[in-house]
Amino acid sequence: MSIPETSLHTLEFDAVRDRLAHYTAFSASRELALSLTPSTDLNEVRRRQALTAEARLLLEEWPDLTIGGARDVRRSAHHAARGGMLDGTTLRDIAATLRSAATLRQRLSRLDDRFPNLRDLGYTLPALPHLIDAIEQAIGDDGQVLDSASPTLARLRHEVRVAFNRLQERLQSMIHSPTLAAALQEPIITVRNGRYVIPVKAIHRREVRGLVHDQSGSGATLYIEPLAIVELNNRWRELQSAEAEEVQRILGALSEQVGEAVSAIVSTVNMLAALDLVFALARYAIATRSTAPEIVDWRPDDPPSTEPPLRLIRARHPLLPPDKVVPIDLWLGGTFSILLITGPNTGGKTVALKTTGLLALMAQAGMQIPADQPSRLPVFQYIFADIGDEQSIEQSLSTFSSHMANIIRVLQTLTEAQSFPAAPTDQALFDYRRPAALVLFDELGAGTDPVEGSALARAIIGRLLELGVLAVATTHYPELKAFAYATPGVENASVEFDVETLAPTYRLSIGVPGHSNALAIAARLGLDPALIEQARSFIDRNEAQVEDLLAGIQRERAAATEALQRAEELRADAEKYRARLAAEQQAFAAEREVALAAARQEIEAELREVRQQLRRLREEYRSVSISRQWLEEAEKRLAATAEQAQQATERLQRQMVPSAPPPPAERPLQVGDTVHVASVGLNGEIMAIDTDDETATVQVGGFRLTVKCSELKRAKAADNGERRFAPPERPVNLPSMPDVSMTFDMRGWRVSEVSDRLDRYLNDAYLAGLHQVRLIHGKGTGALRQVVRDVLASHPLVASFTGGGRDGGDGVTIATLVDR
């Protein structure tokens, strides 16, 4: 069972293989990289992933680890096995390859238990030390046969050098002889037809006896081998021929040894290529910042699980530039098995589709995937992808027919694969599990009438549900959004679009269908509003309601996300202050224990001293005459002293235990306080106080009352819309502190109200241990903001303050309180 080549091509797996090949070290491993295919066997996929993970860990510890100078010498080895002779350079390449294998085998065999698979592969590398030594002793680094290859060769080369020197000495004496000076064209020695000659002027031919081997183009110069050196030339050439024969004999013998070891050599190259491919996979994973996915054993017939079998966290397409790709979170299985992605063109739907399929292929090929952990993937026996170019403005019938032909072929294959095996046995019935499959359809049902295309798409999705496959499909049809919402096992998703910038964000949101942005984009671009409204009137009312509902869902989801983020920030602040208070309490408890221990030691020392005095008194009583009455009185005084010491210890312990602070004295009523007016049973705000008459003017709703101060009682603090911290889920043994919100809303206040009420809030916030508070005063005319910041500038509990920035702008002031 294998994944179709068409799926590999459609999902651009061949481009990933090309990039992987750049990280290989020699041609044999490059061939493996270019022919790498995903496996459909669970154990094999896990073995590949384990090898890649081990290789990555090994490269992080030994970055310079390579396969050395290995070469693909399999063809040369087969040539030698057929009786062919190899030259010195080829033999040296074979030796270098075998030496690299021996070195790598040695290094891998010493690995610890973190690298079991690499260590096992190292043991499988063949060892051919005798062949390596034989080649390295006979062939030099430049591919030439060394003198040490055989005694005969060493002797012949020595004799060649001696004969050559004699020949050169004789020729040198001739060209410098006065007798021949006039006959020579110039005093040099040259070679013609492999024999040494001298240039003689043609007119002096008779003055030099010898054999003519050549003449110049003009005929004025003859190249003559003098008779005096013919024998020397002959001897030198004979020795050269003997040397060449010996070299050929040595090369033939070494080639014969290579031919005898052809199986081991080919196996060595194959193993080196496999190891180099593993290291290439690791280097590619490091370069793409990939991680190892969890490979799970999942089939459609398995019991439902809350954890989806396919989950990609911040997944990135490996062929897109890292600085431009937007990570996506995507999962399949669990509560739904089919994901329907909707959204605008060029919004990233196809990228999400291809990313899912390509990362599944990479994982099953043993590659780590560009996603964050803990991403997980099952092993798919089938991966099908029908992804076409939908960017053209014209879709012909042939395009639709091509897509339908692919879809029909996919459905037929899956139906046949999941049919019950013929002649089932009890064991087959027990073991049978439908194969896992991943199906990717781009623009499902497009290219034909929208009504028919939408109906056809719903029918296809229904069949995929019956087959139990995991599937991702993209579409523009609004009917499919409602179908996905109402059909169990199908979930909506969308790629977001920024109407303000008219650009896609490429972020994938699961659970929310895409919203049509055509009218919004047209309005943003400046189309006449009358035309926009006319176009809106043409839209079916039901469809418009669905689109409005989707837009509302997206707005509510964005608001909920923002509120959740703010709540998380507040929770983090609360945890920080709670941790600080816990640390302070722990430090206080430690100091208390130290003080108690010191006091206890001091009291015990005093008691020891009193006991020593008592012993001395008893000894004196035995030695001298002291009245028993005096001794009894002394013992009573000693007992009283011990009791006093015990009482002092208990009193010290009580003093060291922190007690709840006494309730603060209630301050007098002030202007701005919220009070309860007993005579009318309503709450109001004090506007003025007459201390002489002991009366106060109170604003109650739309009325002002003048009442006796004795009728007024301070009302409980109103919520004022302020957000409070939720009580901790687990009891925390901390000192009590005022319940003060980090946000103080003053919008709608009069300027005269700010100073006193803000002062009280800052005091309470400081006592509660808050480090920073958020003051909301709104923008308006700026008068309220100015008063607030004037108060903060002179307040002793405020260390600094700034504007709200992105968290409210000029309508908010962030104040940082002094440390306690």
Side by side, the strands of the main sheet go: 10-11-12-8-13-14
From the coordinates shown, what is the CATH architecture of the largest domain? 3-Layer(aba) Sandwich
β-strand number: 23
Q: What is the CATH class name of the largest domain?
A: Alpha Beta
Structural class call reads: alpha/beta
Enumerate how many helices there are, as a single number.
22
Global Rg: 48 Å
State the helicity in percent bands: 40-55%
Under CATH, the topology of the largest domain can be stated as Rossmann fold
Task: Give unreliable regions as ranges.
Answer: 390-397, 718-737
- Say which CATH homologous superfamily of the largest domain is assigned: P-loop containing nucleotide triphosphate hydrolases
Termini separation: 70 Å
| Total separate domains | 6
What oligomeric state do these chains adopt?
Answer: single chain
Spell out the blueprint of helices and strands.
Layout: H1 5-10, H2 13-21, H3 27-34, H4 42-61, H5 74-81, H6 88-109, H7 116-123, H8 129-138, H9 151-175, E1 190-192, E2 195-201, E3 210-215, E4 221-226, H10 230-260, H11 262-287, E5 294-296, E6 310-315, E7 328-332, E8 336-342, H12 349-364, E9 372-378, E10 382-386, H13 397-417, H14 426-431, E11 437-441, H15 450-467, E12 470-475, H16 478-486, E13 489-498, E14 503-510, H17 518-525, H18 529-538, H19 541-623, H20 628-656, E15 674-677, E16 682-690, E17 695-700, E18 703-708, E19 712-714, E20 743-745, H21 751-767, E21 772-776, H22 783-794, E22 798-803, E23 812-817
Parallel strand pairs: 5-9, 8-12, 8-13, 10-11, 11-12, 20-21
Antiparallel strand pairs: 1-2, 2-4, 3-4, 6-7, 6-9, 13-14, 15-16, 15-19, 16-17, 17-18, 21-23, 22-23
Helix pairs in contact: 2-3, 3-11, 4-11, 5-10, 5-11, 6-7, 6-8, 6-11, 8-10, 9-10, 19-20, 21-22
